[in-house]
Write a structure and sequence with these properties.
The protein has 482 residues and is α/β, with parallel strands linked by helices. Helices cover 34% and strands 14% of the residues.
Length: 482
């Protein structure tokens, strides 16, 4: 056993360990600087610190074995690493623990790492909150992971698996610390370089429309059900008493449209179909008609007269609960959403890129029928209507006009890249456009793309995608030096 292995094993045996079915878990945390300016990964940390939490997951037979380490880079932004219930609860884990010790870090601000949410920023000025949020982007995240690699894993080269935004982080790591990684896998996570938020939405907004249309083609009866829900919401608002979600947020038609953020996953069509199946309280849950006076009549009722339904009570509590749950504002996911495309000094501010692009497409109007759904997109109204996001509003207004961000991609370094990169590119991906991904990969050294339309954006969570990527890299000889 060499010195690096001894150091790594010594670290791992001093952390807390326990078991979940089929897996051994060790947990630990380290201190990292809140602001990496003036600090260098691997050296003593100066200034204010935050906690970075991580787990190491092993197959029972591999605890203490001399295996390479694979770090999972979670999607997001603002996503914590998965909490495995078993090797098969998140499909890629079962394959990964056959070959690796698996590191599951909670990115700064998420999970058990020092939290950042609305309560963190509610007492801050907009300027202070804006500066804080900029410290939770890829340049800081990767420096955290590089510090973890150097201080707790003996400086040995890691393998990475980046899902979605985790692929963005992969390119940041390859740009900033190209000698730290032995091999990389990405799934639905190759951004366009050069990065541009507006360009991204020019591609993804039409995909949102296409996915909605495919949903209605699969369940044509839902056109009427979705339209009726939107009409009820509008009627209630016109009566002067907007509908409320269980958490107290106002339910507007644009908020309803954001349930479409699931459309890039499987089984999204069924998720939406069953959501709207239980929307209506009257009768057997039939579609009501909205009268000119703002009342609702059951379109499926029989008899001499149909019962009128008040828009205030037309929707079931279960439906309102599920809408609130599906559109819940994750703490960093929405505030950071458009700034993951900000690389260094920008030529122009981002200025609510998704909102500007959607405004060019009248078919997304809340009054349009059939009603179209939004995918992964943020809008100014979210930071007014949603209580979890309101504390971020002042910071968002400032950041949307900002042009000074940390460097996250180095195109020249990526062109010279020597680390094997195996990327799963989902042809129909709603979140990360495949055309833009392939254009980027064409300019990254030692990169290989597997393009497939068999999976949606969440394909890695099954049992086939990572296995296929691993075998492709292995058979090419890209893993021979692990």
């Amino acid at each position: 056993m060499n010195a690096t292995t001894q150091q790594t094993q010594q670290h791992r045996t001093t952390t807390a360990g326990y078991w979940v079915p089929g897996l051994h878990i060790e947990e630990s945390s380290i201190k990292v600087p809140l602001n990496w300016a003036g600090n260098t990964p691997g050296q003593n940390v100066e200034g204010r610190t935050i906690d970075l939490f991580y787990r190491v997951v092993d197959a029972p037979e591999h605890v203490g074995a001399n295996l390479p380490f694979l770090m999972f880079l979670q999607g997001g932004p603002g996503g914590a690493s998965p909490r495995p219930m078993s090797p098969t609860s998140d499909g890629w884990i079962a394959e990964a623990v056959k070959h690796f010790h698996v590191i599951l870090p909670d990115q700064r601000g998420t999970g058990r790492s020092t939290a950042v949410d609305g309560r963190t920023v509610q007492s801050m000025s907009g300027q202070d909150a804006a500066q804080l949020l900029k410290m939770f982007l890829a340049d800081s995240i990767i420096r955290d992971f590089e510090h973890l690699r150097l201080t707790k894993f003996g400086g040995r080269k890691l393998v990475t698996l980046g899902q979605s935004y985790g692929g963005f982080l992969t390119l940041t790591w390859l740009s900033l610390f190209p000698n730290s990684l032995a091999a990389c896998f990405t799934t639905g996570g190759i951004p366009h370089v050069p990065a541009d938020a507006e360009e991204t939405y020019e591609y993804t907004v039409p995909t949102m429309q296409r996915k909605t249309e495919q949903y209605y083609e699969r369940y044509p009866q839902d056109r009427e059900r979705v339209a009726a829900v939107a009409d009820i919401i509008t009627a209630a608002s016109e009566q002067g008493s907007a509908l409320q979600l269980p958490n107290g947020d106002e339910l507007t038609v644009p908020r309803l449209q954001t349930v479409g953020q699931c459309l890039g996953m499987k089984p999204s069509f069924e998720t939406l179909h069953w959501l709207f199946d239980t929307a209506f309280r009257a009768g057997a849950g039939d579609v009501p008609n909205i009268g000119s006076a703002g009342s609702a009549e059951s379109a499926g009722s029989t008899g001499a007269a149909s019962s009128q339904v008040d828009p205030q009570t037309a929707l079931t509590d279960a439906f309102l609960h599920d809408v609130a749950e599906q559109t819940y504002a994750k703490a960093l996911y929405w505030p950071l959403q458009e700034f993951i495309y900000a690389n260094g000094e920008l030529e122009k501010p981002i200025e609510w890129a998704a909102s500007r692009v959607v405004a060019k497409h009248a078919q997304f109007s809340p009054d349009a029928r059939p009603l179209l759904f939004f995918g992964e997109a943020i809008f100014p109204w979210m930071f007014e209507q949603e209580r979890q996001l309101r504390p971020f509003r002042a910071a968002m207004d400032l950041l949307m006009q900002d042009t000074h961000f940390g460097t996250i991609y180095d195109a020249d370094q990526l062109a010279r890249n020597e680390v094997p990169l195996q990327a799963a590119v989902y042809f129909d991906d709603m979140y990360v456009n495949s055309k833009l991904s392939l254009d980027t990969l064409s300019r990254i050294g030692h990169s290989h793309a597997w393009v497939t339309n068999e999976f949606e954006h969440d394909g890695v969570h099954g049992n086939r995608v990572f296995k296929h990527l691993y075998e492709c890299a292995r058979d090419r000889g890209d893993l021979r030096n692990l």
